[in-house]
Amino acid sequence: MNTKNLLTKVEKFLGVECTHKSVNNYSCKFCPDCGKKVVIKLVSIKCMECGHLRTAVNSGYNHIVPQKEFCCFCGSSEWSYQYYFDSTIPDKLREISVSQVMEDKENPFRFENTDNFTNVWVEKPQREQRIYKSNVIKPKRT
User: Fold this and answer.
1) φ and ψ at 14, to 5 degrees?
2) Which ranges of the chain does DSSP label H, i.e. alpha helix?
3) Average pLDDT by consecutive 10-residue portion of the chain (142 residues)?
4) Domain-by-domain residue ranges, the chain?
């Protein structure tokens, strides 16, 4: 067992998570330190009261907050995150957004409640079902 595997096992035992600092470009699909699948998203911050877009900054351990504590339009201190992929973010938001490396998790409901059976049922047609030849009214011949 090499030293890196030993350190990752000790970190798992102590509850220390990988910060994915080695992921440095948008083409990385997996973290080189822990091997987990990651995705890089751009995060912008929006005021919850007026919807004004605020400048986002990194403040330590993978935590993103607004640059100023209060909104300059309404004075509110409440805000929410908006996540974008690199290909879908508008150019105006790119300047005030911060990139964040996140673990790419599968949908938890994707494989839930699945079994190996397929239920098929067929409804029998009614016997006295009227079948019309045409729904177009034909003119009378005289």
Assistant:
1) -80, -10
2) 3-14, 91-94
3) 69 70 77 82 89 86 84 90 83 82 66 62 65 61 66
4) 24-103
Cβ-in-10-Å burial (0-12, 13-18, 19+) of 41 comes to: buried
Distance CA 80, CA 139 (A): 69
Helix, strand, or coil here: 91?
Answer: helix
For 40-62, give the DSSP string.
EEEEEEEETTT--EE-EEE-STT
CA 11 → CA 2, 61, 67, distances in Å?
15, 16, 32
Q: Has this prediction a pTM greater than 0.70?
A: no
Look up tokens 């005021």; give the residue. Answer: 47
In the block, tokens 């102590």 appear at: 14
